[in-house]
Design goal:
- The longest helix is centred in the first third of the chain and has 17 residues.
- 34% of the residues lie in helices and 23% in strands.
- By secondary structure, the protein is an alpha/beta fold.
- The chain is globular.
- Bound molecules: S-adenosylmethionine.
Length: 180
């Protein structure tokens, strides 16, 4: 099974920081190796992600500022495939799109947008697959979570994070956290 990296497009620091940090945290917690924030750098976002990785473990990388076209080009040059998450795509439930993605066995770059994405994202030049988590518009964070869970088939939820300082002990009530 290929590794997964998330490409976050369209981040506007003044209004998207919380949502973009949630995308990074979701990506990390649900099995992605890292996130590329394209076209812009956001040092506050970087601090948030680094703090979480420092406390709760990794590996998880955050790359920032690379133009989206370059990020896609670099990924493809390394023989990875590109999945664009969009409400207009092939339905993850009613089509066989996940089977076709998994059958490639290749590393996956998952693009999530914010405001209206460039039309090129839908084209063969950019995306190998356009995947809809249901054909209703909702959220980049929600669609990413469902995509990752279907891709990793739930196994990501028991992933062991390396070099964590803290670990949660699951319990039926209360909060059990141990220092590792
Ligand atoms: C809040 S939506 C805005 C989309 C924008 N209005 C448009 O028409 O492109 C932001 C991002 O969430 C993701 N998204 C929203 N609904 C989705 C769905 N049903 N399936 C997959 N991705 C979705 C897409 O990545 C999209 O770019």
């Amino acid at each position: 099974m290929g590794r997964v990296v998330v490409l976050r497009w369209g981040h506007r620091p003044e209004r998207d920081r919380r949502l973009t940090s949630h995308i990074a945290l979701t990506a990390r917690a649900l099995g992605a190796d890292g996130m590329i924030l394209t076209d812009i750098k956001d040092e506050n976002l970087k601090k948030t992600v680094e703090k979480v990785v420092d406390l709760w473990g990794g590996p998880f990388f955050l790359e920032m500022g690379v133009p989206w076209k370059e990020a896609v080009k670099n990924w493809r040059a390394k023989d990875g495939i590109v999945v664009h998450l969009t409400a207009y795509g092939e339905n993850i439930q009613t089509s066989d799109v996940m089977d076709r993605i998994k059958a490639t066995g290749k590393d996956v770059l998952v693009i999530v947008g914010s405001q209206k994405v460039p039309r090129e994202f839908f084209s063969k030049k950019v995306s190998d697959f356009n995947v809809a988590v249901g054909n209703q518009p909702h959220s980049e964070c929600a669609s990413l979570a469902v995509f990752l869970d279907r891709y990793f088939e739930g196994k990501e939820l028991t992933k062991n994070f390396e070099n964590a300082k803290l670990k949660i002990i699951p319990s039926s009530r209360g909060k059990k956290v141990v220092k590792v």
